[in-house]
Automatic annotation (TrEMBL), chain A:
Keywords: Membrane, Transmembrane, Transmembrane helix. This is Membrane protein. It holds the Pfam family SpoIIM. The chain crosses the membrane at residues 122-139, 194-215, 279-301, 313-332.
TrEMBL record, chain B:
It is a multi-pass membrane protein. Residues 31-183 form the RDD domain. InterPro entries: RDD. Keywords: Membrane, Transmembrane, Transmembrane helix. The keyword Membrane applies. This is RDD domain-containing protein. It is found in: Membrane. Signal peptide: none annotated.
Amino acid sequence: MSALIDGRAAAPLVNASRFRAAHEGEWDRLDQLVTRMEKRSVRALSEDDILALPLLYRSALSSLSVARETSLDRALVTYLEQLCTRAYFQLYGVPDTATRQLARFFARDWPLSVQALWRETLICLILTVAGVVAGWWLVATDPSWYYSIIPDAMSGGRDPSASAETLRATIYGPQEGGGLATFAAYLFTHNSQVAIFAFALGFAFTVPTVLLLVYNGLTLGAMLCLFAQKGLGLNFLGWLTIHGSTEMFAIILAGAAGMKIGTAVAFPGRYERTEAAVIAGRSAAIAMAGVVLMLLVAGLLEGIGRQTVQSDAMRYGIGLAALAGWLTYYYLPRRAEGQDALAA
Amino acid sequence: MRWRRNRAPKAPASLRRSFVTPEGVDLRLELASAGTRASAFILDILILFISLILGTILLGLLGIAQARAEIFLILWLVGAFMLRNGWFILFEMGGRGATPGKRLLGLRVVARDGGRLTGGAVIARNALREIEVFLPLSFLGMQASQGAADGFLTLFALCWTGIFLFFPLFNRDRLRVGDLLAGTWVVNNVRAKLGADLVAARAEQPRRIFSDAALDLYGIYELQTLENVLRGGQDDAIVTVAATIRRKAGLPDDGDDYGFLSDYYAALCARLERAMLVGRRREDKHATTGRR
């Protein structure tokens, strides 16, 4: 048996070759359009290109189906698979433009996701209040508890041994060292990082989130009790309220977001476990992004407003107004989904 | 449980996943391997660190020049925060669905259900990076800086990191905890060039004719292996494969290995394709030529 060499034999034109010859132009054009979209955005395409895109995409998809059934040329099938995948994600998977996403976030996604957390928010509020009461009670019965609740670095001289005058000086008068704005920036980044942890840890066990909230309440209660014993309770509360109303609210929301995920994983209800986690995760993450923005506001209020606004009435006023603002923004009834595309 | 010995060597666990488009075509996405994803992450972290260092130096120079340290300190604090949290989120929210590191390696973040990649999903998958990587790292760093790295705590941090870091290796879809929660996965999204048509390339030249018996030796699997060898173009592989085929088919050596293989490929391809069109698909050399 031998392999003859025959120059006159008809070319073994296989299906794949004919197929390539017929469609290669379309594939090339689609490839170019998708590449341009990947490099820049859909705006890089002309009107003709945009009209042609879905047609080219569908014809590439049908080429892929045909090639899989009739062709043995693996390079061709691989090429078409990758081309179709890239085109698919440019047509279906790409998020909205940044401005539209931002608009949607402020108009709908953020308040709605916070609204959806109302049950968890209530629980977190109760936990925080319980912490405050416990902190107050502990320090009121035995002042030495104060030292175990509040670390030295945080107290900064505000402890039971300090006189009423020193305590008064910490909430009124100029802040030592200056650098108000730096302080604000530091607080913002630090608190945000803590809030992100509270959110992420919620997925892990939910327990750390609860502990964090209770501890947060404990420190507040202990400090309140300390100042109240020196007759400065209301003054301290005012000093705290100006930024605290926003900050505490934000921390409670972060805890609620974490708790939502933790409970969705533990008690998925009607859904499959991962499915429940995904639904909770996506909406809680949006609330989380909002929390970071709230903390930015809190940081500004704290760093700049707290020491420059000296009157108690103003402090309460600003703090309560901020709280009222957040509550209205979040919980004011909104139109049901689907209707508010025009309202936004 | 029933034990069964595989006759043929088992193919490695595939990262291909069925993914049906609304048009009803299965794209068979290929998930990114854990190694590629780790490399992409390390690349991103490197770029992050370099930008942070460059930014610090730049701000330092500006700060000294204008002696307004406070503003630059604020810029640094907020800038560092944005870099740490915003880098992954902002890039993945963009049209490419990939950070620069992922882009360099041809990866892309995709919603598992095939829909749009929403902002919420991107934030969720990246916020969890905090407990997967940054929490134990900063914890270890803190311990080390205090010079009091408690043995037990260090061990705990290492275990924690281990669980989350190697999580992708323990599930078949290579999901991070963040991916699990956000409903995303990371797929290969490379640009392939359409290789030359091996059959058409030989069509113009005089070619060898093979007997049916010689062409009946192999099936589709061998054909595509041969395609890889031809496209790879490695001389020693071509010599070996050509020798094997000649020995099996009992053909004399005519000294042109590449030409021989190309012709054999074209002839086998035409034959298998013709059989396929009438419903006889021969997967590999072990399969008989009959109807499936």
